[in-house]
Amino acid sequence: MLETTSVGSFPKPDYLQKARTAFAAGKLPYAQLHELELQATRETIRLQEDLGIDILVHGEMERGDMTTYFAEKLVGMGISDLVRSYGNRYYRKPIVAGELQRPQPMTVEMFKYAQSLTSRPVKGMLTGPYTMCDWSFNTHYETRREVVLAFARLLHEEVRDLEAAGAKYIQIDEPAISTRPEELEIAIEAMGIVTQGINAMTISHICYGDFKSIYPRLLDLPVDQLDLEFANSGYSNLDVFRKPKFTKRIAFGVLDIHSHRIESVDEIVAGIRKGLEVFDPELMWIDPDCGLKTRTTAESEAKLRNMVEAVEVVKAGHGLK
């Protein structure tokens, strides 16, 4: 009840940023880069344990962008030049240029390594089929639906392998799902393929979209938990979920990851209590609005520390354990 977690990414330490730059320039062998990725993963797991977070993430230290990382590992994909994402952030947009194939698991080894570092559960993490399509160019398949379903079949294999490796929680991120309400049915169909026959608890993170346009149909997305942002909107989007009643598990975002400001414990407590007016406490986790990679390590630690303390305050005040 009111378990704490994070969405996925953590800020990369300076030594890893410099190593990634050197590797891209051909000045550092991959083996040395990978050792530093493992070091940063150990630090991320230790930080979350020290803060008292319940369900951990590995921090995505081996990933640059949430779609490009997968595009580089799939057959049938290429990478474009830099494309603007938002603000002054850019990424290399994937290109679907042939029949998609998955030669080997893409996330399992890092999941197994992160889980070996802690007795607490670590989430398996991957980007969902709709977002992979929406954030890629397509020069091969006839329709967007064909692209989404091709990704879905490959990602089902990845989810199945994560479950076989011991993942009890598997998060399939779909931040693009609320940007095209007219394609929600495709996203639902695709997620049904990804999660079919999976017994692990499945989660989908969705953020910064028009929830009003996709609710309550969003409840039919075939995952166990939806992970949504609320702090960035000042909790105004809570009203969307008051009627009809929200029937899934929810991870409730209480930290604005687009702000350098450290939310106070009292502020987070107030946010959680607003959430409890709408969601059942036994179905509710508490986390940041989105991944923390845009914040500094110090900011991330301070935000998460206050989040964990705020959850304890709320539990004590409501007699929750």
Low-confidence stretches are none
Strand content: 15-25%
Give the radius of gyration.
Answer: 19 Å
User: Helical amount among residues, as a percent range?
Assistant: 25-40%
Q: How would you describe this protein?
A:
The chain is an alpha/beta fold. 37% of the residues lie in helices and 18% in strands. The chain contains 9 helices and 10 strands. The protein has helices spanning 14-24, 30-51, 68-71, 108-116, 129-134, 144-164, 184-195, 265-276, 297-318, and strands spanning 3-4, 75-86, 89-101, 124-127, 137-138, 169-173, 201-206, 225-228, 249-253, 284-287. A 7-stranded parallel β-sheet has the order 1-10-9-8-7-6-4. Strands 2-3-5 form a 3-stranded mixed β-sheet. Helix 8 links the parallel strand 9 and strand 10 (284-287). Helix 8 (265-276) packs across helix 9 (297-318). The longest helix is centred in the first third of the chain and has 22 residues, at 30-51.
Q: Topology, please?
A:
Blueprint: E1 3-4, H1 14-24, H2 30-51, H3 68-71, E2 75-86, E3 89-101, H4 108-116, E4 124-127, H5 129-134, E5 137-138, H6 144-164, E6 169-173, H7 184-195, E7 201-206, E8 225-228, E9 249-253, H8 265-276, E10 284-287, H9 297-318
Parallel strand pairs: 1-10, 3-5, 4-6, 6-7, 7-8, 8-9, 9-10
Antiparallel strand pairs: 2-3
Helix pairs in contact: 1-2, 6-7, 8-9
What are the salient characteristics of this protein?
10 strands, three-stranded mixed beta sheet, 321 residues, globular, seven-stranded parallel beta sheet, 18% strand, alpha/beta
What would a concise description of this structure say?
The protein has 321 residues and is an alpha/beta fold.
